Amino acid sequence: MQDDSVIHAAGCLLWRRSPSGDGIELALVYRPKWADWSHPKGKLKRHEDTRDGAVREVLEETGMTCELGPELPTVRYEVEGRPKEVRYWAAEATHGTFTPNREVSRLRWLSPDAARDQLTRSRDAHLVDALLRTLRAAGG
Fold this sequence. Notes:
alpha+beta; Nucleoside Triphosphate Pyrophosphohydrolase; 26% helix; globular
């Protein structure tokens, strides 16, 4: 049984091979409501599977379809006095085009180092390292 006091969310560290052929780039989104740069993520819909929610949020926030890879560390923190749990996956971008929307006004593709520096919250920056370890272990 799921604890209703916990806000459940899911997201991805969306990546692609760098157009220069040198390494990878990560997609970061700017959310004007929170004035932050973050990984695409969002609250799950009622009875939604977390993997499905992660893919849906990537599509809604970035316009990108993706291939879900390994799960990354779960991040836990409080929002307005309630616990929030965000499950993340590595996800390779497969197709799509970003269009600014109600939740996300900008998208940037950045090197892992630049992404780490651009992210507003340190808890999101730690996920970049987890993604890089995961991709190295998978031979990517």
